[in-house]
Write a structure and sequence with these properties.
about 400 residues, alpha+beta, Beta-Lactamase, six-stranded antiparallel β-sheet, 13 strands, about 45% helix, about 20% strand, rod-shaped
Length: about 400
């Protein structure tokens, strides 16, 4: 007995990949496609009809009527030859065709004689299988025009059904991936929230220890140093507290942050005759920049409360954070007190607080301007590196 040679066409990588993208081999429900083969059998008046898919090494029957093996080797498959043809493939008598007369399905049971099929062609023009009809008796007349049209129409509708199935699978996979990603993000958010909560608690513990230590120091100057350190720690803790409360772990709302910080300093120093006014735009900063700006506000407002209003003098401290055009941020801390002495150079000073301000300005790649004309005004300008607009 001779066997059909396996052409390279069956092993074509693009064709096999197109078939596998449908994820249908061995997995699809017959109910999804059974109506197609029943219509083919009824219209063509054949006892056997099937939808067959040709893999690189096997013939696999998706669904059929009239029995037959679910899976065949390619050298036993008539459909494997049919996908090499164009248009309809009709064999009136398989036993008289040299390509098939030695085929086991023709020589032995089920003694197939008549065969007709339309190829299943993907939208990209790749043949992945057939919808076919078979009979046990030869049909010299082949198929009528109506039967030929119906078989081809069924082939197109089967491909449409496969494409819909593929699209549904892709949507399902995308939704599954999205759900997994969302679950992962939710898990990370919970973890970040817990991290910020613990950092805030630890910083508050340090602040409390500094307060406790300051209360046991008799020397007022030394106690003041501890109080300053406590306020710096509280400023950093407040950033993490605001992140924890807001649930946004990437950015800090500076309006809320500066208001909270000013209120804390007002309570800490208890200067009832000095008003602290904060007026900020609705601007957000990343964690690092928010911490730096918060520490600068802490130092400059603390200095004003300690030195700008001697002898219980009344006055006002104004803090403003604004977002200028072009991604430039401005932080202004001004007071109407006695003014910064002329001999104090902000860029070269022994004051720990002003040294800290200078270092923080450098970290922000900013510029600090000091106006001593009426009281003292510090204006810090720096670029928001998240800004992606066109340059001015």
């Amino acid at each position: 007995m001779t066997t059909i040679q396996v052409p390279d066409m069956w092993n074509d990588r693009d064709r096999v990949a197109a078939l596998h993208r449908y994820e249908i081999l061995g997995s699809a429900s017959e109910a999804d496609f059974s109506d197609f083969v029943q219509i083919a059998s009824d219209i063509c008046n054949t006892p056997i009809a099937a939808i067959n898919l040709i893999d690189s090494h096997r013939h696999w029957t998706l669904t059929g009527v009239g029995g037959g093996d679910r899976e065949l080797p390619l050298n036993h498959s008539i459909c494997a030859q049919a996908i090499l043809q164009t248009d309809l493939f009709v064999v009136p008598d398989l036993s008289s065709d040299l390509r098939f007369h030695d085929n086991p399905l023709v020589r032995g049971d089920p003694k197939l004689r008549f065969y007709a099929s339309a190829v299943l062609e993907t939208p990209t023009g790749l043949c992945i299988g057939t919808v076919c009809v078979l009979d046990h008796t030869p049909r010299p007349e082949g198929l009528s025009a109506r039967q030929r049209f119906t078989l081809q129409a069924l082939a197109r509708q089967i491909i449409t059904q496969l494409e819909l199935r593929r699209a549904t699978l892709e949507i399902t996979d995308a939704n599954t991936a999205r759900d997994r990603l969302q679950a992962s993000l939710n898990e990370k958010e919970v973890l970040l929230k817990e991290v910020h909560h613990r950092v805030k608690n630890n910083l508050q513990l340090i602040s409390s220890l500094l307060s406790l230590q300051a209360s046991r120091i008799a020397d007022p100057a030394t106690a003041a140093l501890f109080a300053d350190s406590r306020n710096r720690v509280r400023s950093m803790a407040m950033v993490h507290e605001n992140l924890y409360r807001a649930g946004n772990f990437a950015e800090i709302a500076m309006q809320t942050h500066i208001q909270s910080l000013c209120a804390q300093l007002d309570r800490a120093y208890g200067r009832s005759r000095v008003d602290i006014v904060s007026d900020s735009d609705d601007v957000t900063l990343d964690l690092d920049r928010a911490v730096s700006c918060g520490l600068i506000v802490n130092e400059l407002v603390s200095n004003a409360l300690k030195h700008a209003f001697p002898a219980n003098r009344s006055g006002q401290i104004t803090v403003r954070f604004s977002d200028a055009h072009g991604g430039t941020c401005n932080l202004t801390v001004a007071d109407n007190g006695i003014g910064l002495p002329d001999h104090i150079d902000v860029t070269d000073t022994t004051s720990l607080g002003l040294q800290l301000v200078r270092d923080l300005v450098e970290q922000l790649d900013g510029v600090l301007f000091v106006d001593r004309s009426e009281g003292t005004k510090f204006v810090l300008t720096f670029k928001d590196h998240r800004y992606t607009g066109a340059p001015a």
